[in-house]
Amino acid sequence: MPFEYARVIFANILVAVAAFGIGAPLARFLPQTIPPWTRRICCWIAGFGILGVVLFVIGQWKLTRFTIGIVLDIGVIAAGITALREHWFPLHWRPRISKSQLIPAAVIAAVMLITAVNGLAEPVGDSGADGVAYHLLGPKVWLRDGIVRPVPDNANTAYPATTEMTFSALMEFGGQRAPGFSSVLTLAFLLMISAALAVRCGASARGSWWAAALVATMPSIYQGAHSGFVDAIYATYVLAAALVAFDAETGAHFAIVGVFCGLAIATKYTGLIAIPALLIIAAWPRKSASIAPRGGFLRGIVIAALAASAVAMPFYLRNWILLGSPIFPPPPGVARFMHIKYLSVDALRAYYDACIERGKGHGRGLIAFLLLPFGLTFHAADFNGGGGIGLAPLALAPLGIAASWNQPVPRRLAIFGAFLTIAWFATMQESRYLIHACVIGAIFAVLGWSFAEFFIGRRGAALGAIVVTISLVYGLIEIVAATRSNMRSVVSASYAAHRRSAEIPFVSSFDYLNHNPDVTRVLILDPSITPYYSDKDYLKPFGQWGERVLPDTKTPSDALAKLGELQVSHILDVHSNISSFQVPPNFPGLVLVFERPDQRVYAVNRPRD
Amino acid sequence: MPDINNHSNTLRPSLRRRYWPILAELWIAATILAFAITRIFNSEFARNIFRSLAGC
Hints:
Largest interface: A-B, 39 and 24 residues
Radius of gyration of chain A: 25 Å
Shape of chain B: rod-shaped
Distance between the termini of chain B: 63 Å
Oligomer: heterodimer
Strand content of chain B: under 5%
Shape of chain A: globular
Order of helices and strands of chain B: HHH
Strand order of the largest sheet of chain A: 2-1-3-5-4
Radius of gyration of chain B: 20 Å
Number of strands of chain B: 0
């Protein structure tokens, strides 16, 4: 097991260094008003995203250890050249943390340690766990097939996949656990960009540490930052775009804003809603700016939009060509004038109904919106995000906004945060989709804490300290509770084995199929089965969202009737929550070779040639 | 970079009235109290108490 963990860590270091190298050349295009360390962080984040985009484009042709290795090697060499050019060696880096920053630094260190241990755990869960359901399923199938194509039985694998492509590289070099461990890197990105934004809004160095600590301990944020979730890195791209946008003046600056916007759109569809507002905020004329008021506004938007389109285009173009719609699954109305593969109109309607039902939160009326800050703070579970955002944004952020409203950057950030919240409220109220706005809330909470001391006096400072302490302690408790099982499985082999059998559905059958050399291709009949656990090629005619992989096959009986054409060696048949066994007893041509409660594996007797 | 910590430069005149600091203080205190109450009422400890009271 130590070797396995070492491999996971090595793969993540490799990807981190490659991302650094790929992003390094962008430094010269960033505004010089951004401090050098912040520029470095922005480049690293951009490099991480661009790595995913490059792998996606190459993966349309071939995704193998060789092609992934070439891309990573180029990144590592670029990182080496950057280090040599800037005379990094011998390293003289010393952490500069003052006494006043020790407490938030310790909190961040604790969260990062939890994240690292949590990230070493074996992925488990059923089709309700998004990580194994599609974020990790896609990379596993793409590596097995040697090409990046949407998995036909899983519409979610057609989502924009920048981060999933990086997961592919991690899986190839670090095994199944490596993508989970990458949360150490992506959470660090989010914390660094949060701190940089806090400083840009006028917080002191100490304040930026506190802002990062508040972000690290917000359970809603943390929920979207580990176990294969891509919400935290998506929010990082949006916030990095905002950070550059506040200082963007030249065409090159706006192009970098566009690159970050493109990475956001290429990571999650929700970027399509957030980015227009960001572009307007970025290009809105400023008193201090040297760009011409009207022409500069349009020019900035056009340059950023073009750059964003160039970055995100491969993902949407691929879907359009292969699946019939740039956004997949598309809204049901689209099916009237476009031919959509794999999903019927009824299936699309059911999919969107399920999304709307899941994202209804506290309703959509004006009263519900006005009560939203209270709902997010006190009734977090109603937004599919147990743990919530802590107390600090509600208690202190209003003071922070009031204190900084006269300053252009905080004002723009507050307006942007308000827009993100309104858009989230009107679309899908899923807690982790609001991470960028939660970060903005944490930044204003820290500004508000500083202001409370000035405005109210010592009692204000003390009350602010109580609020922040409650948020940190509460958040840490929630995070430990949420990750306890994963962490325990890392340190206890017996618990890991117990958890594996308890939380991986039909694990005995998967173990049999994965270890049996006679198995070449498995037919999976039950739509609710999570095929991530199959190391062998598989065919799943019916997907979780009503996907139909084979055009003329509507029922499991249809699939069994044409067994000879399907080229499968084995069939996995289960009695699940949604259906009973599908293979009738003594079905001709099948031999029962493995049986456990609620699960059966049949070997297909192929006629000899 | 703006220096938000120097609030005397950035504060809006309308916020300089005397009752605003008191309201701000009450707001923070009220949120702390509300958070404590909701956490206590949501806790397993509180649920056990309510269950035992209901049993009586």
